[in-house]
Every structure is written in structure tokens, then in C-alpha cells.
Design a protein that fits this description.
single chain; 2 domains; four-stranded mixed beta sheet
Length: 208
């Protein structure tokens, strides 16, 4: 009889502990602060961010991250200004344009995430031993004028001794989200697409 009482007591203690763990986990979930984040591109370049979300690292810090894809710095900026998201992940030029535009409730850059550009140059035809000089006289889809990818492209060309205004044609009429589709559709000899390392710095921006 005594053994039975001890066994039953032990089982009840284990059951109580299990219930306590489950209850605490539910409470912790409820206590998490929800943060809506808009990213400018979904890329392997940001794998650490995805890993941190999937592995629960943000939850360990009390944050529930809701990540959404909003292609183009102009669009993620609009998402923050409208209150649809809390934080925008894009090039730092967005905060400068909003501030210079006289917006009272402007964006504020608060964290640097990368030191390199996530875009690379894709050719329509295979080129063995490619150099930047192969862009001379060609047509390249560069991205939205004033956007970080396009400005980075021009900076890279100038550093290589190529005049981006005279030595080739850079198409700045295609939006960030449509660049790949336009190239596949037959526009341009080259296109600057996302998913590798180059020169751009990306930042997080939040409404001031």
C-alpha cells in the first residue's frame, strides 16, 4: 500500500511538472512582442535572419517576428510609413529620401546588417573570363534610379574606369521586383540581380 501511494505521488508530481512546462510555454507565447518586418528581397544572402526566425532565437529574446516580402525600397518604406509594418529592411537611401522630402514622421536608420551588396551581374550570353570592360557598349537593366542597387552599379563602373553615362546604357525604368522578368522577356544584354556579394550596405529602418 505504501509503495502504491509513493508511486501515485511520483506520477502526480511528474504530471504537475509537465503541465507546468506546457502552461509556461503557452504563457511565453502570449507574452511575446510581435514585430512586423518587411524585407526588400528574399535571398540566400539573408540566410542568418531566416535561421534565427526558424530556430526560435528571436522568441528567446521575447520577440515574435512576422516577416513579409515587399520588393523595392520604395515599397518597404511606404509600408513603414503607413504603419503596416514596424521595421523595413532595405538600402539606407530610403531614409534619406523621406527625410529630404520633409516628412515629419520620417524613418530612422538604426542598424547596419550587411557590408556588401547582394546583387550580381547576369549575362544573356556566356562570356568566358568576364571583365567589367565587357559591359561597354551594352544594355544593362540596372534598377530604379536613385535606388541602392543602381547607385552601387554606377559606383562599381566608375571605379573600374567606365563612364556609366557614355560607355553603356543603363535602364533605370524597371522596378526592382520586375527586373528579372524583364530580362527573361528579352530586355537587355545584362541585368543586375540579387543573390551574391558586392558593395552595398543594407540597414534596418524604423519610423522615428
Amino acid at each position: 500500500m505504501k509503495k502504491k501511494i509513493i508511486s501515485i505521488t511520483f506520477i502526480l508530481i511528474i504530471f504537475a511538472l509537465a503541465c507546468g512546462v506546457l502552461f509556461n510555454n503557452r504563457n511565453n507565447k502570449k507574452d511575446l512582442i510581435k514585430v512586423k518586418v518587411a524585407e526588400v528581397a528574399h535571398s540566400i544572402f539573408y540566410a542568418p535572419q531566416y535561421a534565427a526566425i526558424s530556430e526560435g532565437f528571436f522568441e528567446d529574446e521575447g520577440l515574435d517576428i512576422e516577416l513579409s516580402l515587399t520588393p523595392g525600397a520604395d515599397k518597404v518604406t511606404a509600408s513603414v510609413l503607413s504603419g503596416d509594418v514596424d521595421i523595413a529592411f532595405c538600402g539606407s537611401e530610403a531614409t534619406i529620401y523621406v527625410y529630404n522630402g520633409g516628412e515629419k514622421d520620417y524613418l530612422k536608420t538604426f542598424a547596419q546588417l550587411t557590408q556588401k551588396d547582394g546583387s550580381f551581374i547576369v549575362s544573356r550570353k556566356k562570356i568566358d573570363n568576364f571583365t567589367v570592360d565587357d559591359l561597354k557598349g551594352k544594355y544593362i537593366i540596372g534598377g530604379r534610379i536613385g535606388g541602392m542597387p543602381e547607385m552601387t552599379l554606377e559606383w562599381s563602373l566608375k571605379k573600374a574606369g567606365i563612364d556609366p553615362k557614355k560607355d553603356l546604357t543603363i535602364d533605370t525604368s524597371v522596378s526592382f521586383a520586375a527586373m528579372g522578368g524583364a530580362f527573361i522577356g528579352g530586355t537587355g544584354d545584362f541585368v543586375a540581380l540579387f543573390d551574391n556579394l558586392d558593395l552595398k550596405e543594407n540597414y534596418l529602418a524604423i519610423k522615428n
